[in-house]
Amino acid sequence: MKASRILHASVNVTGNLEEARQFYEEVLGMSTTPRPEVPGVPGHWFAVGDAQVHLVAAPPLGTDIDPTANHFCIAVDDIEATVAELEARGVPYLRATQGDEEVVQVWVVDPAGNTVELQQDRVLS
Ligand SMILES: [Fe+2]
User: pTM, whole model, 2 decimals?
Assistant: First the structure.
């Protein structure tokens, strides 16, 4: 596994999506970027340089690996090889696809309980 860059950071703003959107836009100066439809998960995306900030407005799932939890997402050079490596190491992960089904998302939890998402680096693929 080789991490190449940070793609996004995601913060959960459940109950405060509109206020949070205004804060990130007006106070922090972020610009809106298109967000694909995520069924059952309201949110808003901002572009910050080459990366993004994602606002998520869905309550915690209560699962061991929760994609709605605050997290950051790193790009990896080969997502399928990364998944194979996680399995070989016995690291639990959650896998899903987004939007056009071509974006594979994988979430893991570090030993301190922080959620980390992994995606294929499309620049490298
Ligand atoms: Fe994410």
Answer: 0.93
